[in-house]
Design brief:
Order of helices and strands: HEHEHEEHHEEE
Number of helices: 5
Distance between the termini: 54 Å
Largest sheet: 5 strands, mixed
Strand order of the largest sheet: 4-3-7-5-6
Shape: flat
Strand content: 25-35%
Length: 142
């Protein structure tokens, strides 16, 4: 019923959330099984660093995030600092604008490697090309 009221009034925005349930190192296996049944939650132990990898994967998946790596011409890709975009807002133009607004204005084309590219050797694309998670992008200026 609350969702119906929100739609009619149009004044509320629902954002995705993940419940992180800590201290699983202090509970039994039976209690842990119960925690796994809670929707949108990830049980972890920050002290013992248990299940943190699953938390990271769930964050990328549930929050609809896309990692895009930069590759300067003539250099290998930089996997240390991806540009993070949201699915639905992950075009080459969005990628350029998240770095600096002048990049999109001065771009001749981009070369993309990864899931969104048609060829494994890279694909020339324009500003409207939609990027996928872990794509690699080189921007070629005019």
């Amino acid at each position: 019923m609350d969702d119906l009221i929100d739609v009619i009034e149009g004044n509320r925005v629902h954002i995705p959330a993940i419940y992180v349930l800590n201290k699983i190192d202090a509970i039994s296996i039976e209690e842990l099984d119960l925690l796994y049944k809670i929707p949108n939650s990830v049980p972890i132990s920050s002290k013992e660093w248990l299940n943190v990898d699953e938390l990271i994967e769930v964050m990328w998946e549930k929050l609809d995030l896309v990692r895009v790596y930069t590759k300067p011409r003539g250099s290998p890709p930089d996997y240390t600092a991806p540009v993070v975009l949201r699915k639905g807002r992950s075009t080459v133009e969005d990628f350029c604008m998240s770095i600096h607004k002048e990049i999109a204005k001065n771009m001749k084309f981009a070369i993309v490697w990864g899931a969104s590219a048609k060829h494994s050797r890279g694909q020339k694309v324009g500003l409207d090309h939609v990027l996928e998670d872990e794509d690699i992008v080189t921007i070629v200026k005019k």
